[in-house]
Records
---
Amino acid sequence: MKKLSVSILGTGFVGLCSAVCFAHRGIKVIASTHNEEKANLINQGIAPFYEVELEEILKEVVNRNDGNFKCLVGRKQAILDTDISMIIVGTPMGEDKRIDLTLMEKAAKEIGEVLRMKENYHLTVVRSTVIPGTTRNLVGDTIQKISGKELGKDFGLCMQPEFLAEGRSIKDTFYPDRIVIGEFDKKSGDILQELYESFYGDHLKKAPILRINLESAELVKYGNNCLLATKISYANEFANLAELVPGVDVVQVMKGVGLDYRICERFLGAGVGFGGSCFPKDINAIKAFAQSKGYDPRLLNAVLAINDDQAIHIVDLAENTLNNLSNKKIALLGLAFKPGTDDMRQAPSIRIINELKRRNASNIIGYDPKAKESAREVLGNKIQYANNIEELLKDADCAIITTEWDEFKILKPSKFIRLMKNPFVIDGRRIFSFEEFDKELTFRAIGRVALK
Ligand SMILES: NC(=O)c1ccc[n+]([C@@H]2O[C@H](COP(=O)([O-])OP(=O)(O)OC[C@H]3O[C@@H](n4cnc5c(N)ncnc54)[C@H](O)[C@@H]3O)[C@@H](O)[C@H]2O)c1
């Protein structure tokens, strides 16, 4: 049987990772972008952004030169020459915090235009995160209108939510824990299942395929992200409670809670709060969707409010010790929203920096092992950028752990004492041993009060 081929519309985190993983296992893939510079980089085996393992695999599939992988500028040839098109464009948060579906609509139009001239049956799969109804009503209808073809007869439609996490995108793409296929009709779902059977083989014994309708699949993604974000805000709520009880440590409390098999320990880390390209935008998108239907999502409102307050709390901790922030050097260890990526979208560091600035801090410096350039694009000259930890901490009055990179986890109190003007550390990610740090320097940690 002929192997199905795939075009990927959108070469961001999800699109490019999917494309290289498919090609790595022998599936013919044409990635497509409108950005010529990006296409050139990708075709040379250079990843346009940092993601663990991505560039190695990209180089490998490019160097194989077996015709299974290329990146084209524009969509036409990519759609014409493949059986399945996956739309993996950004669905960002608009000014009004609602989902912005401009790129999704554009991609659907592009598919429609190509399908007008394509004879073979073609399957479109929406893999971006979209609010319920988008796949059927925006993508399906647009393709149908523009192509003049009939959905269900001439072309198929699926919605497959993506669950990969940045920093482990490649691993998650190769070894997902489930595959959710939302299908317009059985034929569409069967074709996508066939692709994944050939891609995953035996792994499907561990990763069930769930076949449901389009709207349920769209909502699964929001259900997933909202629950994970809720766990984080829940841990932060308990961190705030723990700080009211001397001797209590939220890390131990959440460990105790997480050992319950019904709950699990993951995503119960108290700290600076969540950020990234997904949680804030997805919660806001589904919140706006709920409101548009006349429902007020009280739990989601609380999850967002608790998250925003964590930045204020971190700055409170700094101000309570330093009194006045205006003439103090404040050093941020980490700028990216999490380790393993240079992604700055909605990073907690941005909220903390804005709050520091609001309280007149003028000497803020940041260091991130990977996100220096992407941080500069977002933060400009609001802060200074150190090239290494030594430069960052030199003569600083306060150090705040904002991203839990491995190279920070191994730091000892002696390093802070040697380099800083006033050794004062705020552990916003709970990466240090409280006992060890609290003994040797001024130490504040989310979810635990110092006894001295
Ligand atoms: N990043 C994640 O961890 C993650 C995880 C699961 C799901 N998702 C969802 O997957 C989707 C893509 O996310 P991402 O992080 O890969 O986004 P991204 O912003 O990294 O990439 C989006 C891609 O859209 C395309 N694009 C940009 N401008 C365009 C334009 N003017 N016209 C057409 N296409 C354009 C580009 O190829 C761009 O790289 C989103 O809906 C997101 O919510 C993301």
Note: The first strand starts at residue 6 and ends at 9.
---
Amino acid sequence: MKNKSLDICMAVLGIVLLVIFGASAYVTGHTQVMESKKVGSISEISIPEVPEVTTDRLNGVVSAAEWESHYPDIYASYMKNAENTGHGGMRISYVETDPDIQVIYDGMGFSFDYTEAIGHNFTLNDIAETTRPHKLANCLTCKTPDMTAMVNAMGKGVYSMDFDEMYAQVSEPVSCYNCHGNTPGTMVITHDYMADAMNDEIAASRVSGSVVSCAQCHIEYYFDPATKATSVPYDSLDNLDPDSILAFYNKMGFVDFTNKNTGVGMIKVQHPEFETFMGEGSVHKGMYTCADCHMGVSYNEKGDPYANHFLSSPLENEALLKDTCSMCHADLPAQVKAIQEEITGREKQISAMLVEINTKLAAAIDSGSLSEDVINQIKSLDRDAQFYWDFVYVENAEGAHNSALSRQCLDKAEALAKQALALLG
Ligand code: HEC
Ligand code: HEC
Ligand code: HEC
Ligand code: HEC
């Protein structure tokens, strides 16, 4: 490994030059955005010259396999995501571990089919196998770059195409194009709704391309009721907090599904990792990017550094823990475990309250024991309480990204649920 220190020197020299000469280009949508590189992260690695690769694939998306010969280490680490098949290889079914969702999600697919997230290589298999209904192509928004490129070429009408028709045309799971376009080495925001929402923020250096690239999918989104286009419920970093998102949905009267037992029009939150990490109370926002904690730098057999594309928990990345996190954290795994136990414990306690509201509300509607006015008040409290609870429940870090925000949301959910239960007597 004797070349390693030399390479690091070269890498550091690269950074210095990058900083001096105005850093590398970040491209979002159709806009070129400049961003300075940060020392201490993957960005330190000098990027090999981007080769031209031509392809016959759909809409010109160069596949991961076609990049293999140019970036063998990155490709191998990207393929390693196929080893992520769930906890200890056993994929958790939340319908079994958290049976409360059978009641509170009743009326939508997640009440009977909701399994743990696994590696990026499986996105197309998973969407084919799920028993949740999926009629339109918009369900493929976060599953394949082939669809993303089609939206970029043909516009938002693609989102409302028939699912089966679209599925027949795609074959690449989440891959290089999603985060780099056809130019690995630059970050390209390829998903139109994210470029729309975050272009100005990236231009103003308020958020890194290595955060927004993940946020293209790890976000709360909704399908526009008129066009069915995948959309985000905010347009800047200043209104991505749960209160603003709920206000946005309530103002437009947005309904994801109607609960079968109570007839309440509910909001179904989806994996808001971007919103928790960039939200108020996040300790490490601005200091780290998603890539710093979930990718990191590795070294090949020759000792050359490369950006590790195996997306893992930082707790499973020993080098990262030892070299970086341990500077300030004596025992990060224990700290994270304590946060997650506290948060998931409270999630269960509050989902039990939501089930109680559901059962009592359905009974009150049946018996006509409460006035319409009171029933409507309870319905609205139920909708809002479940929103705040869901914002924490479906977030994949289980409190680790921003424990303060998770606690706040659970406090709000609990207070609203208590009010509803008081009205139900
Ligand atoms: C989910 C998003 C994502 C996917 C998919 C992805 N990358 Fe990356 N890639 C990143 C991020 C984030 C960085 C780090 C950027 C930074 O922090 O400077 C990066 C860095 C890179 C770099 C520059 C760093 C270096 O080591 O030279 C190259 C080259 C690269 N990726 C190639 C690829 C290739 C080839 C593929 C497909 C096999 C791929 N990437 C797939 C997100 C992605
Ligand atoms: C194009 C959409 C897309 C992009 C971009 C994307 N992801 Fe994902 N990610 C997904 C989907 C979908 C899944 C779930 C796959 C499944 O379960 O089949 C997932 C799963 C994951 C998992 C596994 C979760 C688990 O519990 O094991 C991790 C970790 C992850 N992503 C991190 C990232 C990071 C970090 C980035 C940015 C560098 C990123 N993702 C960018 C769509 C995306
Ligand atoms: C420069 C010091 C420093 C470094 C380096 C550092 N952290 Fe932290 N981290 C903190 C502080 C301060 C807090 C807040 C106090 C606490 O909870 O310990 C924190 C909190 C956290 C939390 C809990 C967040 C929450 O909302 O409760 C996680 C998770 C975390 N850090 C992960 C990491 C990871 C992963 C690394 C390495 C990539 C890392 N930290 C490196 C200082 C640091
Ligand atoms: C400071 C470090 C840090 C940053 C930055 C960070 N995360 Fe995480 N993330 C964590 C920790 C810690 C966990 C919990 C890991 C565990 O349970 O083993 C986690 C869990 C996750 C998970 C669940 C996967 C798993 O292995 O449990 C996903 C998906 C995820 N993060 C996505 C993101 C995205 C997207 C971003 C950027 C918007 C991001 N993270 C930024 C530390 C970080």
Note: The chain is about 45% helix and 5% strand.
---
Amino acid sequence: MSDFDDLTERMRAFTRARDWEQFHDPKSLILALVGEVGELAELFQWLPADSAATLALEDPLRTRAAEELSDVLLYLVRLADVLEIDLPQAAVAKLASSEARFRPEHFHGTAPVKD
Ligand SMILES: [Mg+2]
């Protein structure tokens, strides 16, 4: 069993043990996911952009960022499970698409411009 499958199973068991499946419709899970992304963003909101990466290497920001990233991941895992999406497979397919779309010989050092 992969780490992703293990997380999916553990989140499913965590939810079932608390009878929270009734609350885990896609809309509610998406809002919870966005809320956790907001908590992550809040940690970095007023940090100077040029030093945020350095500050995130040390506590207390490192620990707090890990906690919020985990919240984001766990809701994402749960949402994919409820939607019956094989997220690792979908992510690999999406990355392959991006690799083909943004070929290094055309985009090296250049940010893609939205069409
Ligand atoms: Mg959180």
Note: The longest helix spans residues 61-82.
